[in-house]
Amino acid sequence: MEIPSVYLERAVGQFSQLPGIGRKTAMRLVLHLLRRERSDIEAFAESLNELAHNVRYCKVCHNISDEDTCAICSTPSRDHATICVVESVQDVMAIESTQQYSGTYHVLGGIISPMDGIGPQDLEIQSLVERVQAGGIREVILALSPTMEGDTTSFYIYRKLEGVGVTITTLARGVAQNDQLQYTDELTLGRSIVDRRPFSV
Amino acid sequence: MEIPSVYLERAVGQFSQLPGIGRKTAMRLVLHLLRRERSDIEAFAESLNELAHNVRYCKVCHNISDEDTCAICSTPSRDHATICVVESVQDVMAIESTQQYSGTYHVLGGIISPMDGIGPQDLEIQSLVERVQAGGIREVILALSPTMEGDTTSFYIYRKLEGVGVTITTLARGVAQNDQLQYTDELTLGRSIVDRRPFSV
After folding, report:
1. Alpha-carbon B140 to chain mean position
2. Can you give the three-state secondary structure of chain A, one letter per residue?
3. CB spacing of B48 vs A33 below 8 angstroms
4. Does the domain formed by B80-170 have CATH 3.40.1360.10?
């Protein structure tokens, strides 16, 4: 498919480098942009430039932030003795939107995945250990995905923090709300029976 | 989902205005961008600014172009007596990639669709009529999608060009290459029998 304009070609090339966007989709997106006002396209470009220059990472928890310290870490009313360790910024947003957690976070920026060449040194694990060792922390919640990579990462962090004298917890595992029991996988269902809890209303 | 940075929020807002991209996908794309080098994001922004300022439309056929006249219209070896009328820039690229056509194009910029409030005056139909009336045109090929809107638009253009004395043709309709006959819709199959052609190898 030969593109009749180098500028169109370049923009399509940029969009098609994004995950899950092929050249045909990229072309559709760019032609959609071209139908909008020139000022709209400029605003899009400006938002990317602002992104490149202004987005920072919180120096405490490594969450995305506009300041040196993010809004969560700088709120005094939150429980600063509890750290919830998550893989990504999206996970922080997901947990925040449950409104069930009032502690702080630590964003690893990924999980240990030898297949993808990601080791502990590529993640914010050392900074977590230092943060816990600095004192004032009561509990570390390992809130990583219940996958092999997530479990590996949790175990690695657990071993690093073992001697420090903090409570280390992990997310409850069991059947998900509104799941059909007959379609729940054996591992999850088995674990939810072993870990059964007193009935309460 | 509360986004922890106004700059992130703005970029997500821009991406989620694109067709088929919701807020979660937009967030994924922007966080992917953030993991790249700052200069990569700047290059993306620059490509959009260039798009906004440099892309033009060919004054003859209204295809996207970097010049006042597009590469197709300014190539002397092409057959300038034949105009292929298409809906969009993508259709030009699709037909060009077949390498079966050596005439010129006329990009309407859409098709007549009363449901979407698009009438003949919103399209490049008047400029087509003027281009044909100016003389030197032998054939106009109506290469619009075989849908109700496409057929309506073809019929409208046909009525406009009837008196001018050019041959007006349309794309052949029939069973598509590699289609399974039993799954071909009745209309297409019926038409392909009525329009049957001498067998040739």
Report:
1. 17
2. CCCCCHHHHHHHHHHCCCCCCCHHHHHHHHHHHHHCCHHHHHHHHHHHHHHHHHCEECCCCCCEECCCCCCCCCCCCCEEEEEEEECCHHHHHHHHCCCCCCEEEEECCCCCEHHHCECHHHCCHHHHHHHHHCCCCCEEEECCCCCHHHHHHHHHHHHHHHHHCCEEEECCCCCCCCCCHHHCCHHHHHHHHHCCCCCCC
3. yes
4. yes
Considering the domain delimited by A6-54, tell me its CATH architecture.
Orthogonal Bundle (1.10)
Confidence grade of residue B197 (pLDDT, cut at 50, 70, 90): confident
Give the closest residue to B1 by CA, choosing from A86, A98, A108.
A98
Q: Which residue of B has its CA nearest to A109?
A: B35
**Kind plus residue range of the DSSP H or E element containing B140:** strand B139-142
Does the domain made of A76-170 have the CATH classification 3.80.10.10? no
Rounded to an integer, what distance in angstroms lies between the CA atom of residue A32 and that of residue A102? Answer: 42
Q: How many whole angstroms separate alpha carbon B32 and alpha carbon B47?
A: 18
Residues B144-182 pLDDT 10s: 999 999 999 999 999 999 989 899 999 988 888 888 888
Chain A, 99-158: which have a CB under 8 Å from a chain B CB? none
Please determine, for residue B1, whether its predicted confidence score (pLDDT) is greater than 70: no
ipTM score assigned to the predicted complex:
0.80
Interface contact B52-A41, CB threshold 8 A: yes
CB atoms within 10 A of CB A29: 21
User: Which residue from A4, A18, A55 is facing B63, i.e. has the nearest CB?
Assistant: A4
State the smallest CA–CA distance between residue B99 and chain A in angstroms.
11
d(CA A63, CA A79): 17
